[in-house]
Write a structure and sequence with these properties.
Length: about 230
């Protein structure tokens, strides 16, 4: 059975402890998400290096996941953002975790200028229903977040990239009520709704593909019978 794939990232220069990787693991292990999906999703925390697109992401996509929910951190954002597109560009200014920078400006010299996610709007609606005021975004950056999103969107399955801000430190309440619930836990609960929407779209897409395949087989049989 094809399963939902959740991805995050490991550390990179300036972010030695990447919260996106921790959130991806926390979300994938959420019992409520397993109940919503009917299966435990796969989780992949990518090394923040350009080579990981081929050595880690590509093999995971080749296993044909039902859908893909990608998470990355954008330190300058103030709230969670739902990315609606990825562009065929990379920056040569920012090194990855190995110190390497992009060798060219285009991710895929023969590819389109951009790729859009049809699932971005339904996912943002789902997040808002879950109480998370996520913002729309058309700029996934020019780093590994954008590069991985561009690669995943090529496959034609439901994919959405969520950018999270750097989570604040949990502070102790002053009214004696103990600690506030960690923001990663709150995000994980809301992201479970996004994952559910993606999985539903993935199943619908898979069923539609099966029906189209069956229709083509039936048409060929009818033509053969007439001949």
């Amino acid at each position: 059975m094809n399963r939902l794939l959740i991805t995050g990232f490991g550390p990179f220069p300036g972010v030695p402890d990447n919260p996106s990787g921790r959130l991806a693991r926390r979300l994938a292990a959420l019992p409520r998400l397993r109940l919503l999906l009917g299966h435990r999703p796969d989780c992949l925390v990518l090394d923040t290096r350009y080579g990981a697109l081929d050595t880690q992401l590509a093999p995971a996509l080749a296993r044909e996941p039902l859908a893909v929910l990608m998470i990355g951190v954008a330190a300058r954002r103030r709230r969670v953002c739902v990315e609606s597109r990825a562009v065929n560009r990379m920056s040569r200014l920012f090194p990855d975790a190995t110190g390497a920078v992009g060798r060219r400006f285009a991710l895929d010299p023969g590819g389109p200028a951009q790729r859009w996610s049809a699932a971005a709007l339904p996912v943002r609606v789902a997040l808002r229903r879950a109480g998370l005021a996520a913002a729309p975004s058309r700029d996934a950056g020019r780093y590994l977040c954008n590069a991985s999103y561009f690669r995943a969107l090529e496959e034609g399955r439901p994919v959405v990239f969520l950018h999270i801000p750097m989570p604040p430190r949990t502070k102790r309440r002053t009214d004696g009520g103990g600690r506030r619930r960690p923001v990663l836990d709150r995000w994980a609960e809301a992201f479970a709704e996004a994952a559910r929407v993606l999985a539903l779209r993935g199943r619908a897409s898979a069923e539609s593909a099966v029906h189209r395949s069956g229709d083509r087989v039936g048409a060929r049989k009818r033509v053969t019978t007439r001949a």
